[in-house]
Amino acid sequence: MTKKEKAAFIVDKLEQLYPETPVPLDHKDPYTLLIAVLLSAQCTDERVNQVTPYLWELADNPFDMAKQTQEDIKAIIRPCGLSPRKSAAILELSKILVKKYNGEVPQSFDALEELPGVGHKTASVVMAQAFNVPAFPVDTHIHRLLYRWTISTGKSVEKTEADAKKIFPKELWNKLHLQIIFYGREYCKARGHNPNDCPICSAIGRKNMK
Fold first, then answer.
1. Contact 204/149 with Cβ under 8 angstroms?
2. Looking at the annotation, which residues are catalytic?
3. Which part of the chain is the HhH-GPD domain (predicted)?
């Protein structure tokens, strides 16, 4: 099977399993999505969704968040881990949004990546899920699966993103990256993974793979 045929197989299988792709992080607008994605670094979506309601009670927009203290933010988001760094980023990026963008989240990869605590993956998620701009955010899970499925070499997340964008149709990127995340959680976990029990790995996965 060629790489293009494998990509088509993956798309068809994921569409069968996950025709609907709700955004895993609870949010109500681009700003709350941005903050939720920032919090999700090295933290589960489930934990973030447990924490953010309390954060939104404190402030759910950049104008109100910019008026808070870092200590108050940190106390709420501590369960998400890395709270000193994340709270500093949330406070500072909120001030920048107020001062530079009139409280709006910029609809640009470059502008987003200039914000404190916002890397390329976070910017990609916001562009895809908040603004419907084609992007292919690659986290460690997508990185793992596309290596297992021989779509990418697995040398880096940057290489995996480039490989994914090259092989999958652009109009599918935003939905497909969520479908891969959902699939990884259900069938293709990092630990205890049996390729023979995995619908995709059993068909096109790397040989002698765990």
1. yes
2. 121, 139
3. 39-186
pTM score above 0.90: yes
Burial of 128 (0-12, 13-18, 19+ CB in 10 A): buried
Report DSSP state, residue 114: T
Pair 55, 10 in one domain: no
Q: Is 145 left (phi over 0), alpha (psi -120 to 50) or beta?
A: alpha
Q: Are residues 36 and 123 in the same domain?
A: yes
Query: At which of 129, 153, 183 does a domain end?
Result: 129
Choosing from 85, 107, 129, the residue where a domain stops is 129
How many angstroms separate the CA atoms of 210 and 195, rounded? 7
Structural domains in the chain (count): 2
- Taking the alpha carbons at both ends of the chain, their separation in whole angstroms is 21
Query: Which residue, among 183, 186, 192, 191, has the nearest Cα to 149 in the 3D structure?
Result: 183
**53 within domain boundaries:** yes
Q: Are the beta carbons of 36 and 52 closer than 8 angstroms?
A: yes
Joined tokens for residue 126: 């916001």
Q: Which residues constitute the domain of residue 10?
A: 3-21+136-204
pLDDT in tens, 47-105: 999 999 999 999 999 999 999 999 999 999 999 999 999 999 999 999 999 999 999 99
Residue 154 maps to a domain: yes
Q: How is the chain split among helix, strand and coil, in percent rounded to 5?
A: 65, 0, 35
